[in-house]
Amino acid sequence: MRKWVLEPGITGLDALVLKESPVPEPGPGQVRVAVKAASLNYRDQILLHGRWGITIEEEVVPLGDASGVIDAVGPGVEEWRVGDRVLGIYHGGWIDGPPPAEVGFGLGSPGQDGVLAEYIVLNADRVTRMPSTLDFVEASTLPCAALTAWSALTGDKPVRAGQRVLTLGTGGVSLFALQLALAMGAEVTALTGQDVKASRLLDLGATDVINYRTTPNWGEVVHSATGGMDKVVNTDGGNALTQSLAAVSAGGEIAFVGLFSEGDAPPPLLVLMTKAASIRGVAVGSATAFTQLIDFVDQHGIKPVVRSTFAFEDAKAAYTAQAGADVFGKIVVEVAPQS
Ligand SMILES: NC(=O)c1ccc[n+]([C@@H]2O[C@H](COP(=O)([O-])OP(=O)(O)OC[C@H]3O[C@@H](n4cnc5c(N)ncnc54)[C@H](OP(=O)(O)O)[C@@H]3O)[C@@H](O)[C@H]2O)c1
User: Which atom of ligand 1 is least distant from the CA of 329?
Assistant: First the structure.
């Protein structure tokens, strides 16, 4: 079979190498998945380029998000059958509640082979059923980006009908946050750095679109126009905290998601107190949250926004596209024929 690997000691696209290897056999309690589609996240750029000090010490199969079909089950596996359509679960060992102490970077990160391969072997509890309303390409976008958006919108202060949600940017997490929040009955104000993307955000159902580059005080603008956002999904990071605090309503929540920026200056935490608001970190999500998300996607007919698809042998081009400025939604690698 063919698999892509990240070679140690190199960063950038040169680290990505296509190799042949034997089809792996599932051991006790494991299943083998014939991968159909795999999707990319910004996290995969971090790993490719060695940002945030993360280095690849040993060869690893990249990417964390896949859909596929079970094509072999190991001894002792009762819950899965050959032919079942499944998704990989991003984090292992996190069933429900808060994450285990060292939740790590999920499938396709240092020490954990990922999914950019024709066949993968996973523990039986590391897969879950695919939504019945999505095809393999669409479904492959859910394990990291959609679950992160779901975790941001739920938690201790779940979004309720009639509330206001702010999203930032037009990548995978942000567009899922927009779509899921709308399905929860919220109104969404969407930020983008590119005016050309505004009409597409409005088409998806955003009430307002603001350019965060030309309106750098977007938090203040949003607050004075609306009275504040019940939920701010901060997919930028530290640099967007000051404006997130300006945007959030009294008693609202900032879901802190982003790794685009660490933050140059401390945010005005007095605002957090005077608004009695909260900031909550999000680390993708648990297996239980993932099944709740999958049910929600089926019930509400949510269709992931797929920007483009690439053939398996063109995985490098998929990485390049995912890092491009015209990203709007998800980039997917079709690992095998989709039927
Ligand atoms: N905490 C978690 O569990 C978790 C899980 C997944 C992702 N994340 C984080 O969430 C963020 C979004 O991830 P993603 O996979 O959805 O990203 P993505 O698909 O690569 O998103 C790209 C889009 O984000 C916007 N953007 C804003 N600032 C950017 C910057 N400095 N560099 C690149 N794009 C920028 C741009 O939208 P516009 O052109 O519209 O401005 C761009 O098109 C990242 O920071 C990622 O690290 C966190």
Answer: 19
